[in-house]
Amino acid sequence: MDGGLKTFHTFRMAAAFWARNVLLALDQLLNALLMGDPDETLSRRAGRAREDRLGWGCRLCAWLDSIDARHCQKTLDHIGPEEGENSVPRLVSRWRAKNYPINRNA
Fold first, then answer.
1. Continuous H helices in the chain
2. 40: which residues sit within 8 A by CB, 6+ positions away?
3. Are 53 and 64 in contact (CB under 8 A)?
4. Which residue, 42, 48, 88, 106, is the most exposed by fewest CB within 10 angstroms?
5. pTM for this one?
């Protein structure tokens, strides 16, 4: 492969990786704006919602699955136990439990 073609292919792959990273960041930003975990994609959140039989999760996963087969399920296949733990409702819940513990003796 000559130098010019090699440089072109390298640039093309770099651009593809960059675009993927930007799309992933936007996906996580959208999830964070919707009060979700900033380290979690909206697809993974929707997959968990579908497992809980929430309508929005079922609808979003059905749409994503029409574009990429088993999209939401593939995100769940790689889920760790800590995923989704930094969503705003969970952070507030932990903060309240720490700062305002329930006094069962009162």
1. 3-33, 42-51, 55-67, 71-77, 88-99
2. 28, 31, 83, 84, 86, 87
3. no
4. 106
5. 0.70
End-to-end C-alpha distance for the chain, whole angstroms = 78
Report yes or no on 7 lying in a domain. yes
CA 25 to mean position of chain CA atoms: 9
The pLDDT tens digits for 35-74 are 999 988 999 999 999 999 999 999 999 999 999 999 999 9
Total domains in the chain come to: 1
DSSP H/E element including 95 = helix 88-99
Contact between 27 and 42 under an 8 Å Cβ cutoff? The reply is yes
Structure tokens given for 97: 């439990």
